[in-house]
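Question: what's this shape?

___
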Amino acid sequence: MRTAVTGCGMLVLLVLLVCIHSTIVSRNVRDNEVSAALESATDYALAQMAQAYGDMDYDEAQSESYTESLLNVFCGALKELIGTDGEITVSVLQADISTGTFDLLVEESYQYAYKGRTGKSCCERAVRFKD
């Protein structure tokens, strides 16, 4: 009887340890996948934005519309590359169309498969398109 109780206790402990390990590993894998995908998609979107910046003729009177146009190119390229169930937010920390300087913050909020908890990944890039 004592052996059966000890064996059942060890089995419960083993199952609990496997569940904890599985949760930690899956969370870590999800974080790494989202962060890597977000960074590579942001770099691709910045390359598309740089190409659009090089193709346009700058007029200082219409700097707001140029900035908006470039951000639409950036967001379109980002959306094209990322297929996610999370929510992506693009924030412009600083933008100067005349010098070609942009500071962007891209955040993705997503849910883990276990217990519906949420995670967040951020990618900040500062670029200058003119020399």
Summary: Helices lie at 2-55, 63-81. The chain has one domain: 34-128. Residues 59 and 125 are 25 Å apart (CA to CA). Residues 34-128 form a domain with the Pantoate--beta-alanine Ligase; Chain: A,domain 2 fold (CATH 3.30.1300).
